[in-house]
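Lecture 7 notes: from sequence to structure.

We start with a single chain of 159 residues. Read the sequence below before looking at the structure.
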Amino acid sequence: MTGPITIQVDDGQVQAWFDQLLGRSQNLGPLMAQFGEVLLENTQDRFLEGRDPDGNAWAPVKRGGRPLIDTGTMRDQIAPVSGADFVELRATARQAAFHQFGTKPFTIRPKGKKALAWPGGPGPRKSVNHPGLVARPFMGLSDEDRRAMDDLVERYLAP
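Now the structure, written as tokens:
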């Protein structure tokens, strides 16, 4: 008969891996910056696709053409901002919120003139009743965004 069996485990490699993981998890700034780039790219792609973050097509525009893409100004004025523990996607174009959330009907009045007029219009007017804008959300987290962010986290924290 033999004596007891003893197994010794050297946990040095495991401890080193946990130390690396702890170090990477204390500085998430690079990961947040990567999140911002993914969100920016996917948001700009939605302008080309004419879809909201949930995959729904934007309402068509009455004058024809593709919604939110005439000049590209709004799409080009979106930028990520990130720090050690946050990421934001900012749309700085003046009209961004109106398109993201839509508007109620409103009245347009001249600011520096006595009347409003435009080419092909009905002639000078003291005011025009605008029917409001339909919401065409372009900002938000899509399922694709979430999957991409999950992949980035796995790669960032991998040994």
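Residues 38 and 93 are 20 Å apart (CA to CA). Keep this in mind for problem set 3.
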